[in-house]
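Help wanted!
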Amino acid sequence: MSKHNRPIRFLKPYRSYGSMTNKKNHIKPPRLADWLLKRFVPAGTLEEVQGDLLELYHYWIETDGLQVARQRYIWTALRLLKPFSRKNLSEPNRDHFAHSSYTGMIQNYFKIAWRTLRTQWQYSFINITGLSVGMACCILILLYVRHEQSYDRYHDGAERIYRVIRDEMNNADQLEPYATTPGAMALSMRNEFPEVEVAATLFQNRPMAMQYEDRQFYEDRVYEADSNLFRVFTFPFVKGSPKEAFVTQQSIVITESTAQKYFGTDDPIGKPMRSEGSEYFVTGVLKDVPGNSHFRFDMLIPLRTVEERFNTIWGPPRYHTYIKLKESVDPVNFEARLAAYAQTKYERRPLDKFHIQALTDIHLHSKLNRELEANGDASVIRVLVTIALFIIFMAGINYINLATARSTKRAKEVGIRKTSGALQRGLIFQFLTESVLITMLAFAFAVVLIALLLHPFNQLAGKQLEVFQPELWLVWLSLAGLAVAIGVIAGLYPAVYLSSFNPVHVLKGSNMQVSGSAGWLRKALVCVQFTISICLIIGTTVVVSQMNYIGSKHPGFDKEHVIVVPNARMLNNRPVMEQRIAQLAGIKKVGASTGSITGAPNWTGNIRTENSQTDRLINFCQINYDYIDALGIQLLAGRQFSPDYLIDTVNTLILNETAVRDLNLNNPVGQRLIWDASMDTVLYAAVVGVVSDFHFNSFHDPIKPFAFLIRNNFFVQEDFTSRLFIKTTAGNPTETVRQVEAIWKEFAPNRPFSYTFLDDNFKNLHADEERFKVLFSCLTGLGIFIVCLGLFALIAFVTEQRTKEIGIRKVLGASVASIVMMLNKDFMKLVLIALMIASPVAVYFMNRWLEGFAYRITLQWWMFALAGIISLTIAFLTTAYQSVKASLVNPVDSLRAE
Amino acid sequence: MRKTFLGEFEEIVLLAVAVLDAGAYGVSVTLEIEKQTGRSVGFNTVHTTLQRLEEKGFLSSKMGGATAERGGRRKRFFRLTAAGGKALKEVKDIRMQFWEALPPKAMYLSGR
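Answered by r_m:
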């Protein structure tokens, strides 16, 4: 007898307990359990069961308390759900009998499926490995894509939010698209357009040093905004409110993690933060901006600190304008009205065209000048999704091929089942159960794989994807559904095929050939697999070659040994500081410029020759005297800027070759040009030198006309240069940086020092492509791995089938080599066919990819040959082991057994 | 042939029904068993056992009248059938036979 594991709970005689039920009747048992009972307990016994349980429930509440009673109720109800072995008494004709035999059958299906999995574990292993690897990468990519597509969708009414953008145009219809507008845009929107619910202006501030007591940090995500920002976007306040956010010029709103950084657990509201002489007081704390936002900030300060009258002046286009339209406003119609209005208002540049851009399109589809952050790329997403689907497809093909190839093994089982009265439908169902079971197992492994791969994947993709959040349960549920769907789709053909065997034939043991009716399909599918993998191999080759080309092509300037120090604008005594730095040992030149040479925005303006009426668009930046030397840009004609020439401080330019060509200048040096004629006065500029072309943007963009100028009285009266380019000798960079920093501290004690190396900046220009390359190569590797798995298993079955044939051939004098050849011939043929199909497909798609680069390689024949050789080698190596093993077997062994 | 076989738990359930006489239904049987044996018994086990015993013909059942208690749901009352009584008796007889055949020494060994 068992020991008493709990005290006997009958303190009162139970018969008297019926009286207490009335008091307790109002306490309802757990609803879900009750629903389950109603749903699954046979109707004939439902009433008594429910009654009994309710009674017990109230009794348990009395003895054990509500908590325990609920648990026991749920537990008992769940255990009551097991299929009853007994017929329904009160309704004997309900299909309860059918039901129980049905569940019995399903149990049997699972049992058989499980046994098949276990007994043929090698086969199951290959299938599950291939499928789970395929699923894992497919799911990761789908989650990644989902993340990319979720950008900015979390705002309330996100579909009504738009950004006003602007195409800078000149009279030659040249176009440069900008994300920025004049500051007056938002206010005019609110005043002039009833369709606009609210409009907000945003200004991306330069990095600021912020200090609270002894805590000082360098903040590079500071924006200037007004409180309308909180009405356009949804940025929930943790402390404070939109109303109080920007009451004074000294307000500052920070995010939660920033508050944590400066104030720890203290209440940040009202605390002072100092920045380079000005002081701010915290008025609000926001929740951190989600990662899937096209701009993210840590701090917001009021807009008006920049310019008092900014919101009425159609001045320089430096602001980002976001609007939220009222519901049921037609954006197309609105855009037309807005464009017409803005064009009349914007007298500075009357040719510019204004548009609106849906907020949710920005991340994947917008590539304008002065984006707030680097955006994603819809075409990359498309490529990734395609590859992911290909990979899962190939894993599915493996399943189909192996299942049909193994048909002889299952043929007898099917025969017996059919003679015992199984219908084809039942058999199909049985085989489907098997394939779904396999895919579910694969799914489980895939989840484990994802957990393992998430971190490396995040590093590769440069994201912080979270995949196991509870909010994502629906996604996971649908992914599991997808896994089942894959099981059904991949299992359908083998199921139909296997279940269609004629029992008389299979039981007599007559020839059930591997290369039977499913043979051609299997070959076709293997061919498809190879076509896909060859496409992927060619793709990888092209991507890698293009990236190597980018890496090795000289950008036209010397990117080695250059330290870039940003945030140097408007420092006191900058020239002195530059001099001091230049005097350090190991430093050759100290250049300075407004833009960073790599990618970051330059200015654009219009320029034309005196005898031409059409303007030409030109990129330009302001530099100092040493810049061209510091970057090693080659001077082709004329001279550099020099303090010796007074005219350089008035109106001189240095052009690049493309600009010379674009302006059609024969003797550029000494030419007089007209600068930005759309301004009120005509400004003349003189060309003093020509430099060779250099890549100031990524290799996606062609080199455009470019002009350098220094601080001069005509065009840029102030010194706007904000970055130092310090060319060093090939010495110890850390020591040099330390010395530069010491000098910086002397001149700008309030500004934190930061630096990068120019070659790194240049690499970062193509970081996305580099990532794409790695991702693409990994996926190609995975795809090949899956194909190899399938091929390996397939050839194992084929050789097994032909054991006797091989034995006889060897007896008759065939050599090992000829037998290996014989076994591999079929697959090699398939690979060659695949190569022929894949090549034109790859040519088409890779050319399209390459077209995105202004500077690119051309496709070469060797890329295809290489892909062919690689896939042949891989196919051969995969099959070699099995075929050599089979052909080495002593024919005595293979022929003896019968 | 399995009909005459009574499992240990079935035997206890049958006994509980017999003891409760006219008042035997799911809850009372469960609680009676808990009270008599001191072990915690799952209602679901009792419920299925009652049904199985009825199927074997050891019990008969009838729905009781509607009451205000338990949400107005009726109870299913179980009664021992003649076959049930016979089966109980058989089990008891077999046990008694064993007990009577037990040499006195065995009782000491078992620690009684």
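OP: Thanks! One thing I noticed: The radius of gyration of chain B is 17 Å.
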